[in-house]
Write a structure and sequence with these properties.
Radius of gyration: 15 Å
Number of strands: 0
Order of helices and strands: HHHHHHHHH
Helix content: 55-70%
CATH class: Mainly Alpha
C-alpha cells in the first residue's frame, strides 16, 4: 500500500478537520519513530494515518472497519497494529510498530491540545509546560493519561522524553497543521 492509497481511504471515511489533523500528526510522529528506530517509515506513517480512519463514521465499531479493510487488502501488519492501538483492547503487541502506534496516538493528541490553547501554539512550547498540563486532570480530560505512560514505556522511553521527541516533529509542520502563531 502506498501513502497516496492510504490518504484516499482516509478521505472516504473522515471529513472532520480535527480528526484529519490528528491522523496527520500521528502519521508524522509514526514516520519519525520509524526513522529513529531504523524501521519502515512508509509502513509506520500509513499506520499512523489510518489508525482512526473509521472512527467518525463507525464510532461503535472502531477500529474493526478499517482493520477488516486493511486485512482484505493484504496489509496484515498494519491492520494488526491498528487493531491494538489502545492497550485496553487486549490485542497482543508483537512488533515495534504495534508498540509505536500506542506511543504516538494519545500523547500526540495531548500535545496538540496543549499547543492550541497557547497564543504561539506549538512555537516555543516546552516539555515542562506539557507535563504541567498533563498533571491537570480537567485539561483534555478525554486523553487517557495511563495510555500515554504505557505507550512511552512500551518503546523504552520516559514520557517526558517522548514528548521532547514529538514536539519538534510537530513544529516542523506547524503551518500545515495550523499550529503556528499566525494560524
Amino acid at each position: 500500500m502506498t501513502r497516496e492509497q492510504s490518504r484516499e481511504i482516509l478521505a472516504t471515511m473522515t471529513k472532520g478537520a480535527s480528526l484529519l489533523r490528528h491522523a496527520r500528526t500521528v502519521e508524522l510522529v509514526m514516520e519519525a519513530l520509524a526513522k529513529h528506530f531504523g524501521e519502515d517509515e512508509e509502513k509506520y506513517a500509513i499506520t499512523g494515518l489510518l489508525h482512526d480512519a473509521d472512527y467518525e463514521l463507525y464510532p461503535e465499531e472502531h477500529p474493526n472497519i478499517i482493520v477488516k479493510q486493511l486485512q482484505e487488502m493484504g496489509e496484515e501488519e498494519i491492520a494488526h497494529a491498528i487493531a491494538g492501538h489502545y492497550t485496553k483492547w487486549g490485542v497482543p503487541r508483537h512488533t515495534l510498530m504495534d508498540k509505536c502506534i500506542i506511543a504516538a496516538d494519545e500523547i500526540t493528541g495531548f500535545i496538540v491540545a496543549a499547543a492550541l490553547i497557547r497564543p504561539t501554539k506549538i512555537e516555543g512550547i516546552k516539555v515542562k509546560s506539557v507535563m504541567k498540563k498533563f498533571k491537570t486532570a480537567t485539561f483534555a480530560a478525554s486523553v487517557d493519561r495511563e495510555e500515554c505512560r504505557k505507550g512511552a514505556e512500551l518503546i523504552g522511553m520516559e514520557l517526558r522524553d517522548l514528548i521532547a521527541f514529538i514536539i519538534p516533529v510537530l513544529q516542523k509542520h506547524k503551518e500545515e497543521l495550523s499550529l503556528s502563531a499566525d494560524s
